[in-house]
User: Fold Mediator of RNA polymerase II transcription subunit 32 from Panicum hallii var. hallii.
Amino acid sequence: MEATVDDLSAAYDEFVAAAAAVMEARAQSGGEKTAATDAALEAFKQRWELFRVACDHAEELVESIRQRIGSECLVDEATGSASSGSGPAPLAAAPGIKPISAVRLEQMSKAVRWLVIELQHGAGGASAPGAAGSGGAATPNAGAGPGPGGQHPEEGGQ
Assistant:
């Protein structure tokens, strides 16, 4: 992460220096187009592209970290092992929802992924045979079928 920040900072510094060089070349030429202003503009364009690439890399890193944190929070909330202050508040807000094991969460996640894949590959009636075929793969995980169904009456009962 530090390397990404360093790369972004260096690219920004070079970009700003190139912008200053364009302004200086333009001032020295009296606003006229010269080889020096063209060279400064070309260097500026190159630095701009390098800065954009560094920004894209930094954005990818931030998105990756955000997704990782989100996944960890989801597992923590689902398993009831949320850290200190944030755990009790969400659990207090939803007292009818019982924590589940991380293994069970992973099984349900896989079942959902299989269903999404089936829906993406099949349309209407074509997905029904696919669901039966790979339903076997999703069925052990989709023991989630009765699980969530079993959870709904419990939630309704409270």
Notes: Residues 35-79 form the longest helix (45 residues). The radius of gyration is 28 Å. The chain has two domains: 2-79, 100-157. Confidence is low (pLDDT under 50) at residues 84-93, 125-158.
